[in-house]
Design a protein that fits this description.
By secondary structure, this protein is mainly α. It contains five helices and four strands; from the N terminus they run αβαβαβααβ.
Length: about 160
């Protein structure tokens, strides 16, 4: 190989390397933007989950969402939803909250009466919860919340759900 051919190959490699570096930087920027948007969306969905008073009966240990303090004090059963998305998809969760399907022979005890876009947001949020936390770990966390008198304090009513007996 002559010197000119070697130089051409080096220039070509540099161009390829620059192109790859640019693509990686572009992908990283898009990934960071997506992460930031999803993080904001995740936080908003968590807040909606709390505002809709889903925390009256549920916790999400994987997301640090504590149940209501009053529910803990009363000793009521808390169902942690950290892994719910691994069992049910968004559409099923929407039907469950509207009491259109049964799970283990029962309907969801609270009926969704809020707007469809908020239902869609909560169902999307819950369907993406796929952490596998051992039940013993969840029970220990809930026990600690009871012992330290932690948990959320919220007003009694919600505009999103109605408890039907």
């Amino acid at each position: 190989m002559d010197m000119l051919t070697i130089m051409e190959k080096i220039v070509k490699m540099i161009k390829i390397r620059r192109s790859i570096t640019f693509r990686i930087a572009k992908i990283s920027a898009v990934g960071l933007y997506t992460f930031l948007v999803l993080s904001g969306s995740l936080q908003a969905s968590k807040e909606l989950f709390i505002e809709a008073r889903c925390v009256r009966c549920h916790s999400i240990m994987s997301e640090g969402v504590e149940p209501l303090r009053s529910t803990l004090r009363e000793g009521k059963k808390i169902r942690d939803l950290s892994s719910s998305g691994g069992h049910h998809d968004k559409e099923w969760i929407k039907k469950w909250l509207k009491q259109e399907v049964r799970h283990r022979g029962k309907r969801h005890p609270a009926y969704w009466k809020g707007p469809d876009d908020k239902l869609d947001e909560i169902a999307e949020f819950v369907s993406n919860l796929k952490s596998k936390i051992p039940e013993s770990q969840v029970k220990a966390w809930l026990k600690e919340l009871v012992e330290t008198d932690k948990g959320l304090d919220l007003p009694k009513e919600s505009e999103y759900i109605e408890v039907r007996k």
